[in-house]
Write a structure and sequence with these properties.
Blueprint (H helix, E strand, L loop, with lengths): L9 H14 L12 H8 L3 H13 L3 E4 L3 E4 L4 E4 L5 H7 L4 E12 L2 H7 L6 E11 L2 E11 L15 H9 L3 E12 L2 H7 L6 E11 L4 E10 L3 E3 L8
Parallel strand pairs: 3-10
Antiparallel strand pairs: 1-2, 4-5, 5-6, 6-9, 7-8, 8-9
């Protein structure tokens, strides 16, 4: 390490070297970094110095930590997500491969808030589908979709790890055309943090989306929680007059 009088602080030098390793491909997304003890020995600095370097990179979304497992290189933020389109379409448009892990699917009477969003009578049945959404195998969002059973009977018979919009069209001849979305900044719960490989309390972006057919019939109400450091959202050019 450069310890000359005009050298940058040691934690900053380590941080820059790790950034160089990420930018030139030596540390690929998902790769585990050496332990604090190993980095301390490699750079001949204290573990406190190493810890500060790693903490700042985690805060910037460049690294992420898993308790009891270690620190890993994160994928670069996925830029200009719309929040309105199909997740699969948005991810494919970035040159990444979308996939899903189904956490649960159940039928239940719609809760009052859900019924109001879907324009259902109280007590009407909905499917509640909860999935982890992945980009190139990396978990980037937790999504909970509420779907009227009357529109999608026997939904459980289909492969719900694929795009729901594809299932809507191919199996039910329902074609989403419009969406309203409201995006809020929040913090990750312990459940979301575990699913997205982040820490509880870290920032997340929560999108509440209503999807409509071309005739403006509501087909789904979806709540998606995105890791805040892995996404930027883009609303497009709009008139301000």
């Amino acid at each position: 390490m450069n310890t000359g009088r005009n050298a940058a602080p040691l934690y900053y030098q380590i941080k820059q070297q790790l950034l160089d390793q990420i930018s030139d491909g030596r540390l690929k997304p998902g790769a585990m970094l050496p332990s604090e003890a190993q980095l301390s020995a490699e750079y001949n600095v204290s573990r406190i110095t190493v810890r500060r370097s790693l903490r700042e990179l985690v805060q910037q979304g460049i690294l992420y930590s898993l308790q009891g497992k270690g620190t890993f290189a994160a994928r670069a933020p996925i830029r200009e997500m719309s929040g309105f389109r199909s997740f699969s379409e948005d991810i494919r448009s970035k040159g990444l491969k979308p996939s899903s892990q189904v956490l649960r699917l159940e039928r239940a009477a719609a809760e009052p808030e859900v019924a109001a969003h879907l324009k259902l009578d109280p007590g009407q049945m909905v499917y509640i589908l909860e999935r982890i959404r992945l980009a190139d195998g990396q978990p980037v969002a937790v999504e909970t979709a509420h779907l009227p059973v009357s529109l999608f009977p026997n939904l459980e018979r289909h492969d719900l790890s694929q795009s729901l919009f594809h299932i809507f069209g191919e199996k039910y001849h329902i074609y989403p055309a419009w969406a309203d979305a409201e995006i809020q900044a929040r913090t990750a719960t312990s459940e979301v943090a575990q699913a997205l490989r982040m820490r509880a309390g870290e920032p997340v972006l929560t999108a509440h989306r209503l999807t409509y057919t071309e005739a403006f019939d509501i087909v789904e109400y979806v709540v998606s929680v995105y890791c805040g450091s892995r996404f930027t959202f883009f609303t497009g050019r709009q008139s301000i007059l």
